[in-house]
């Protein structure tokens, strides 16, 4: 992609090659212009093309340049927010509908991967939400209660079982989610784009949308050397939004998150650490995550940006933490290091906006975008085709509301992570 190891790290190194794409250099007419080539945009393109609509994706940089190509690769069901709290935020109708959609979203991801033959290191062995201390365990017990009341097949594991599965003695228990799993996120988004192209969509890269204007009953969106005229525009730019949709950016506080990948572990270590390749994260406020890739590299992440003073602080902390979590790791050497920005909304719930007539989009996934982006992309295709209307959406239509003290909060996140990691105030 950009050959910048700090942006896409291991994923750029190990991803399946992207289908060849070009910059838009013509005036094109389509049914739908899709702005942004991440999970949401490519899923919308695939599902529109499958419905016989002409869809054109305009990506500012490369496929997966945003969160899609930088993330941990956990295919989660649901949201961060406790299930029982969602109806309180969204109302009962939208809350339960959204929970249902996102609970099933990992299955949708698996199905698309299978149907489209996407090669993306998918592991279907679930995820483990790991309890740190008795407080963490209490939180997981409550999550377990709320999900099982909704029929979700989650299992609460004790400390011994958590140790057996992770290879770490550090946790008081775990919540196992068999719906979930892991994948190589850049390979997945590239595969989605290739599937969309095979179904008839056009994908242009190095084509940032810089402006839009009314054209008949639709819109003309303009890039530096071309334009697309379409009845509908889907805005799928989320935390990496540039150009005319600054409002998307202003509604979110960006949480920096980094990942470090070790060299492939020896076969003995692989047997003792995540032998089943579950994806993991913990209950700490400044959380950590870890998972394996298919070559046996342990990928460890947490809050923080690998730049300026943060780079040395976060990497030193990660080395210490890994040794503490997995005493069997004698030496920890990182082969890849990268980071990105997670778009957080004020209530940790995503948004659906109508920016103008026939200009719509989902955003603000709060660190959960693989399964939600795929599912919301499909919803957008149904909505644009008239199969569903506002009343059938998984989220209510809301106005864009800029967050107050956004820049201060972003500074606070990074500073807070550096202080926590410097102090080593971790398990
Ligand atoms: C470090 C990190 C770890 C994460 N871990 C996970 C995880 O384990 N599991 C999970 O589910 N989610 C995770 N996420 C969140 C997930 O990556 C995002 O929610 C997801 O990528 C959002 O998908 P998207 O398609 O909406 O947006 P993105 O993937 O961000 O794509 C938006 C695209 O729009 C393009 N764009 C912006 N402006 C314009 C413009 N004007 N014209 C044209 N193109 C434009 C950008 O270049 C970008 O490629 C993580 C995110 C980060 C950063």
UniProtKB/TrEMBL annotation:
<dbReference type="InterPro" id="IPR036188">
    <property type="entry name" value="FAD/NAD-bd_sf"/>
</dbReference>
<dbReference type="InterPro" id="IPR006076">
    <property type="entry name" value="FAD-dep_OxRdtase"/>
</dbReference>
<dbReference type="GO" id="GO:0016491">
    <property type="term" value="F:oxidoreductase activity"/>
</dbReference>
<dbReference type="Pfam" id="PF01266">
    <property type="entry name" value="DAO"/>
</dbReference>
<protein>
    <submittedName>
        <fullName>FAD-binding oxidoreductase</fullName>
    </submittedName>
</protein>
<feature type="domain" description="FAD dependent oxidoreductase">
    <location>
        <begin position="31"/>
        <end position="382"/>
    </location>
</feature>
<keyword id="KW-0560">Oxidoreductase</keyword>
<dbReference type="GO" id="GO:0005737">
    <property type="term" value="C:cytoplasm"/>
</dbReference>
């Amino acid at each position: 992609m950009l050959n910048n190891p700090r942006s896409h790290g291991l994923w750029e190194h190990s991803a399946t090659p992207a289908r060849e794409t070009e910059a838009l250099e013509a005036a094109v007419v389509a049914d739908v212009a899709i702005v942004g080539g991440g999970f949401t945009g490519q899923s919308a393109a695939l599902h529109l093309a499958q419905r016989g609509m002409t869809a054109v994706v305009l990506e500012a940089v490369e496929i997966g340049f945003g969160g899609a190509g930088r993330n941990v690769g956990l295919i989660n069901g649901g949201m961060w927010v406790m299930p029982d709290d969602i109806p309180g935020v969204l109302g009962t109708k939208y809350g339960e509908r959204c929970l249902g959609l996102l609970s099933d979203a990992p299955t949708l991801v698996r199905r698309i991967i299978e149907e489209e033959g996407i090669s993306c290191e998918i592991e279907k062995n679930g995820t483990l939400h790991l309890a740190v201390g008795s407080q963490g365990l209490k939180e997981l017990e409550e999550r377990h209660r709320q999900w099982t009341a909704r029929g979700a097949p989650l299992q609460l594991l004790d400390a011994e079982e958590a140790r057996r599965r992770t290879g770490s003695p550090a946790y008081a228990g775990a919540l196992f989610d068999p719906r979930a799993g892991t994948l190589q996120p850049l390979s997945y988004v590239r595969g989605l784009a290739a599937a969309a192209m095979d179904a008839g969509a056009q994908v242009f890269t190095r084509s940032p949308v810089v402006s839009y204007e009314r054209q008949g009953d639709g819109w003309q969106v303009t890039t530096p050397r071309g334009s697309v005229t379409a009845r509908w525009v889907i805005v799928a730019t989320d935390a990496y939004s540039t150009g005319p949709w600054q409002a998307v950016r202003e509604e979110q506080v960006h949480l920096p998150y980094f990942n470090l990948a070790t060299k492939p572990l020896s076969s003995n270590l692989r047997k003792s650490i995540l032998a089943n390749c579950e994806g993991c994260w913990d209950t700490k406020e400044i959380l950590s995550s870890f998972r394996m890739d298919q070559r046996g590299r342990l990928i460890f992440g947490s809050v923080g940006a690998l730049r300026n003073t943060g780079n040395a602080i976060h990497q030193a902390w990660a080395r210490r933490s890994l040794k503490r979590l997995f005493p069997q790791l004698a030496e920890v050497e990182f082969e890849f290091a990268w980071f990105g920005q997670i778009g957080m909304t004020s209530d940790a719930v995503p948004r659906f906006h109508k920016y103008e007539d026939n200009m719509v989009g989902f955003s603000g996934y709060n660190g959960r975008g693989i399964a939600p982006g795929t599912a919301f992309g499909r919803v957008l295709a149904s909505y644009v085709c008239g199969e569903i209307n506002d009343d059938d959406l998984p989220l209510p239509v809301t106005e864009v509301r800029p967050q107050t003290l956004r820049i201060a909060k972003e500074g606070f996140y990074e500073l807070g992570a550096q202080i926590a990691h410097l102090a080593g105030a971790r398990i």
